[in-house]
């Protein structure tokens, strides 16, 4: 019994969930209502080419794919032209489905250290966004955490223990 509860979900089980919901119920934690997934499953479904893959934060931790908090979104993907075009397409589909407009002036892109300056410029040009070194703070917390976690989280600890 317990073994069945900890089994990974099959792609069919994941697809079945939003299709069992009334289309216009309240948005979920990601801010999207079931109608978005029902309409665009062919794009956002788990079998959609795998262009948006998770990023390993560390060797033991889970892979992080995307985080949707408040009205901000962090999207992690490979630094390739194909991935940039896919992100661009997803943003357009999001606009169509949500009837909202993505503010391109607020979009930023940050790269890992092993990407050349030319690659950064080329990839940013595809999305028409500006390149930033890193997102230092995101919702009051460090966006990137390196090896010196004690130093990085000291400001958070200081704020909590005031």
Report on this model:
The chain is 40% helix and 12% strand. It has 162 residues and is an alpha+beta fold. It has one domain (2-160). The strands form four sheets. Strands 1-2 form a two-stranded antiparallel ribbon. It has a two-stranded antiparallel sheet with strand order 3-4. A two-stranded parallel sheet has the order 5-6. The longest helix has 18 residues, at 81-98.
In short:
This is Reverse transcriptase domain-containing protein. With 162 residues, this protein is α+β, with helices and mostly antiparallel strands.
Poorly predicted parts: none
Structural class: alpha+beta
| Terminal Cα span | 47 Å
Strand ordering within the main sheet = 1-2
Number of strands: 8
Report Rg. Answer: 18 Å
Total individual domains: 1
| Residues in β-strands, percent | 5-15%
What composes the largest sheet?
2 strands, antiparallel
Considering DSSP H and I runs of 4 or more, what fraction of the residues is helical?
Answer: 25-40%
Mean pLDDT across every amino acid position: 77
Task: Give the overall shape.
Answer: globular
Helical segment count: 7
Q: Sketch the topology as an H/E string, one letter per element.
A: HHHEEEEHEHEEEHH
